[in-house]
Each structure stands twice: as structure tokens, then as C-alpha cells.
Amino acid sequence: MKIFQTKIPDVMLLEPDVFGDDRGFFYESFNQKIFNQCTGLNHQFVQDNHSRSSKNILRGLHYQIEQPQGKLVRVVQGEVFDVVVDIRKKSVTFGQWTGEYLSAENKKMLWVPPGFAHGFVVLSDTAEFLYKTTDYYAPEHERCLIWNDPQINIKWPIDQSPVLSEKDQKGVKLEVAEVFQ
User: Fold this and answer.
1) What's the pLDDT tens digit per position in 15-64?
2) pTM, 2 dp
3) How far apart are CA 97 and CA 161, in angstroms?
4) Tell me: the pLDDT tens digits for 72-105?
5) Residue of 27, 62, 118, 136 with catalytic role
6) 27 inside domain
7) Catalytic site residue 118?
8) Range of the domain at 120
9) DSSP E strands: which ranges in 106-166?
């Protein structure tokens, strides 16, 4: 597995070793021991999630203010632009974002540490998005930043307004959001 740093040092892009031939391909999508060795982290994952969305659907920017979740995310069908925002008040990268293209074709994964807001927009006709979390979903602690906060200024690679859930439409700006101290 190869590890690449993003412009926010705690967020890592992981590229698995893929073995392919004319029959198809094989790769180990997750191995706890290898993940820990390659990343230097020691997180245990407790929940796996799978979502399917259509083109221009934007999910996020979500986080849990208590029981914060680290997420290891990947796409198994289609393509998304995946975004992570640092919302740790004492961090030197507070309020900054990084984004990566994740697809079934490139097989890359993104490590989203606890203390970050996370979201993605679907670029293909549909996309299936898988993610492992380090803590359980706790809806009472879930919060949402608005996707188009001018202070964060995310450069989403879309040319129209995305389709948002009712919950995501109610996202708040960073300046008034509950953040990690």
C-alpha cells in the first residue's frame, strides 16, 4: 500500500497494491495490520457503511461533535469528489479543506481523521461509496456544515447546484458551527 500526504497533514490518501491481468483484478481492500503499519495509526474500526447516490448528489459536510468518527472511505462503483474540512479550533489548518477524486477505477481510499467534517459529490451517473468508521453513528451528536460556506471556499468540480437532503440544506457556516476545541 502506498500512502500520500494531502495538503492537510493528518488526512492521508491510500493506494492499495492491485494485482490485475486479463481476467480482472484482486486487491486487499482492508487489512488492519497493514493499515496501522503504513499510516502509523492505531484506530480500530467498528462500523461499515455503504451508500449509493446519483449524479450531482452532495452528501455532507458531516461530523459528530461527540463520539467523533475517523473514516476510511472509498468508491466501488462510479466516481466522487471527496472533501475533508479541518474543524479542530487549535489546529494550524483549521477551516482549510482538501479534496480528492475517488473512483472504482483508481481504487484510492481517503483517511478522514476524527475532528474533521466530511462530504462528497457524485460525478458519475451513480456511485457506490463505502466507509469504515472508528466510532458508531450517533445521530444526536451529528452536525453539518453547509457545502458552499464562502469562508471555507471549497472548489467543488460541478457546474450546477447539487442535490441536497433536507438535513444538508440546513447545514451551518463554520463561523457559527460547533467545532472541536
Assistant:
1) 998 999 999 999 888 989 988 988 889 999 999 999 999 999 999 999 99
2) 0.94
3) 20
4) 999 999 999 999 999 999 999 999 999 999 999 9
5) 62
6) no
7) no
8) 44-106+115-176
9) 109-112, 116-122, 126-133, 142-144
Q: Which of 131, 136, 137, 141 is catalytic?
A: 131
Domain-located, residue 21: no
Q: Is the dihedral of CA 3, 67, 33, 92 positive or negative?
A: positive
| Active site annotation includes 136 | no
Structurally, the chain folds into a number of domains equal to: 1
Mean pLDDT, all residues of the chain? 96
- What count of other Cβ atoms lies within 10 Å of the Cβ of residue 58? 23
Domain annotation covers residue 9:
no
Residue type, 125: D
Element (H, E) at 70: none
Strands 126-133 and 24-26: unpaired
What's the CATH number where 74 sits?
2.60.120.10
Q: What are phi and psi of 73, to 5 degrees?
A: -115, 150
Query: In this structure, is residue 91 part of a structural domain?
Result: yes
